[in-house]
Amino acid sequence: MKYFILTGQPHVELIADFEMKEPISSFSFFFSNEFSSHLGPFSCIFDNDKEKSIAYVLEQLLEEGNKKEFEVLLHDSDKGKIVCNFDIVGELHGIGVKSSINDPDLMQFRGIIMPQLYNQAKEVNTYIYLLKRDIVDIRCVVSPKIDLTQVHFHLISPSSKTEIPFQIQYFTNTTTIEVEQIIEHDYIKFTSNPHLVSLRKEIDFINISNLGTSLNEFNLNEVQASHNTVYDFFLHLPLSISSFHFYDSSGNISTSSYFCSSYTCTYNLIGRYPLLGNWKESFSISYEQLIPFNSTFIFPISLALESISVRNYEVHIHFPNGMKIKNVKCDVYNLCDHFKFTVPFLKYWTFDNIIFHYKNLDITSFHQMIWFEYALIKESHGYWIVACFFLISIFLLIFFIILIKLLERNEWRDWIYDKLINRKK
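Structure tokens predicted for Dolichyl-diphosphooligosaccharide--protein glycosyltransferase subunit 1:
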């Protein structure tokens, strides 16, 4: 039997591809009450290699009270495939979609129960399909307690360019495996050890908020708009950000809203006043994000505009204190030629800053992925330099004050006369 959970989507597809020693009349999926209370219509198709038919689903609450059973009725088959689809309805914390920007995890699946087999199966293989761009931390609980040498947890070779299966293999007819938590983080490569009950991430992570808050400024120059048109900005950001803050630099933003889809979060900015020709619009955002230690960080620049076009587009990226940028690479090679490093002395003087300036675009949408290779410096000497400079300044000031006082009293002149002129005599 093969059992699939496709993660990263508010729509979930479960596929049970089974081969039993004896014909079975039903097949059951078990979910926690928290999960099942947010399920949309549960539809299943049964394929026995000869024909496809709609399978009826019975829903019932188990005696334990914390799980719900979805029983798929079959026609005494020992081999076939069950494909069930359902949507997640409403805001469900940690199930498939990121319900709050304050949630540091990209997404979680909690309390998904593997199917319990009432008949002896030849072999059970459970596959959780993971997005290839993510690193995953999976914690599983096996119940009842069995010999864990019979249960194998490992990643297998990718079956497609975008997905990597995580396989759970076991050989018993009464075992249920609860996937307690799946945490996915954007854009991070991962490695794994086979035959571990708990697959742990092997890269040290650091939240950039611990280093300081990153700030990104967007300057749109020579904005052209239709007559009496109020514009919309759509800024697309990765799912893994949290503690999002928006700053209206121009004072022309009326409202803003934040929402997440399966793969990105979108920040929608609606203008307060219609824009005229050659208008300039500026706004800034800051947020926290989990990044790998001493690795590569991907920053997406993705801005969609409605009813307006932009001639010049400038992005200021202010990196947190302690993050030293070593290399920059763009997915469109020639666009990376239009950036420069700056080190402002006042506002962000201890930060690495990069300015991307795109000219003569005349765009209504702009998409760009930028890779930043960086090193994290745990200690920044910038504040020590300021302190030393301040102490030296005070010392020099005191020295000159004393010198002036001595000169006013003629003591300095008498001392020079005694030491130099009298010695020559």
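Residues 379-410 form one domain.
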